[in-house]
């Protein structure tokens, strides 16, 4: 082989080596770029997988919440249905209940009417007793010296008797009769002052209270008798 051929061969080999080296560098760059892309894709894929897992958890949680809400809604629906059924039953029973209420109202009205009649009857009795008492007091005042005056500081009267003591007809025998008003019970009579004091005063007051005030004339008569006994005892 001559020298020119050798030179040409070396030149061709150099070109081939350069071409191969260039190809090798490009191949290396391509592999590196592929590796970089693969790393990026792997990273993105990992991020997407994590995001998908988070989304799956959220969906599971939302599904659980939805199931719980659905269960509560079902319970509320059942309660509403039960309430509607109760209302329907009450509606069906309402005519019977209304009939019972009407009968009860009628019974109470009859009872009220009886109470009114009893009150009217008692009022008539009281008015008759009041008239008899007024006539009695007028007679007692003119013939036996009884004076009646109201008590200023309380609800009551003061009974002042004269013409009892034969040795002193103007001597005054005084008793104060007061009405004690009570909220939880009937009014009661009491005699806080009595001059002179007489025997059996408590019994006289008890009888007056038992008569509910209708025996006031009897109380006055018996009180005068008690005063007369005191006067006779003092004169003997």
UniProtKB/TrEMBL annotation:
InterPro entries: Spc25, Spc25_C. One of its GO terms (biological process) is cell division. Gene3D superfamilies: Chromosome segregation protein Spc25 (3.30.457.50). It holds the Pfam family Spindle_Spc25. It is found in: Chromosome, Centromere; Nucleus; Chromosome, Centromere, Kinetochore. Keywords: Cell cycle, Cell division, Centromere, Chromosome, Coiled coil, Kinetochore, Mitosis, Nucleus. One of its GO terms (cellular component) is Ndc80 complex. The keyword Coiled coil applies. It comes from the Eukaryota. Residues 154-227 form the Chromosome segregation protein Spc25 C-terminal domain. Component of the NDC80 complex. Acts as a component of the essential kinetochore-associated NDC80 complex, which is required for chromosome segregation and spindle checkpoint activity. Belongs to the SPC25 family. This is Kinetochore protein SPC25. The lineage of its organism: Eukaryota, Rhodophyta, Bangiophyceae, Porphyridiales, Porphyridiaceae.
């Amino acid at each position: 082989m001559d020298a020119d051929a050798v030179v040409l061969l070396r030149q061709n080999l150099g070109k081939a080596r350069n071409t191969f080296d260039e190809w090798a560098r490009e191949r290396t760059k391509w592999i590196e770029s592929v590796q970089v892309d693969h790393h990026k894709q792997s990273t993105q894929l990992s991020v997407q997988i994590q995001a998908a897992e988070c989304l799956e958890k959220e969906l599971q949680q939302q599904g659980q919440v939805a199931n719980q809400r659905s269960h509560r809604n079902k319970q509320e629906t059942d309660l509403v249905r039960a309430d509607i059924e109760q209302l329907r039953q009450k509606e069906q029973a309402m005519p019977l209940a209304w009939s019972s209420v009407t009968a009860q109202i009628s019974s109470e009205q009859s009872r009220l009417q009886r109470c009114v009649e009893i009150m009217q009857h008692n009022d008539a009795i009281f008015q008759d007793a009041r008239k008899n008492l007024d006539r009695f007091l007028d007679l007692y005042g003119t013939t036996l010296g009884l004076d009646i005056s109201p008590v200023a500081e309380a609800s009551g009267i003061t009974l002042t008797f004269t013409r009892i003591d034969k040795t002193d007809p103007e001597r005054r025998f005084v008793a104060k009769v007061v009405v004690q008003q009570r909220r939880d019970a009937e009014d009661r009579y009491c005699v806080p002052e009595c001059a002179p004091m007489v025997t059996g005063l408590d019994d006289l007051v008890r009888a007056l209270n038992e008569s509910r005030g209708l025996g006031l004339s009897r109380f006055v008569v018996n009180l005068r008798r008690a005063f007369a006994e005191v006067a006779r005892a003092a004169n003997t």
